[in-house]
Amino acid sequence: MLGKVSRILARREGFVISDDPDLIQVDVVHGFLTRESYWRPGVTREVVQRAMAASLCLGVYTDDEAMVGFARVVSDTVTYAWLDDVFIISAYRGQGLGDWLIGIALAHPDVADVAAIMLLTADAQQLYGRHGFQEFSGWESVMIRTKPEPTD
Which residues form the N-acetyltransferase domain (predicted)? Predict the structure, then answer.
């Protein structure tokens, strides 16, 4: 099937990266985020699906169609983008797939000309640094509004 997909962005021995939303295996993405990520533990499947529907999503697939990686970009395609939910399934780490996925995501036509791309990471500064990301020193000017907890 993957050999016939027209939205393959990159191919290398044994793997492809595609932005075809029909190929994304929601169970794989949800399972990783809710059980293995430090940034979205316990996230519901509905939230994952809604976030994916409003984002550019890229998947890394083996030649036998197993989804082994994912990245999501939220952007207006001109001024700003947010790189999020980047992961490679643990059995496939150490092969440069995360580095490859980030490079392909940043070169995507919907992202390549964006003025600023932001992300948060607790443990992958070196990986993202290879792609031009730097620590942001202006945190005093960054503000956030979070959804209030429901009251009973």
Answer: 18-148
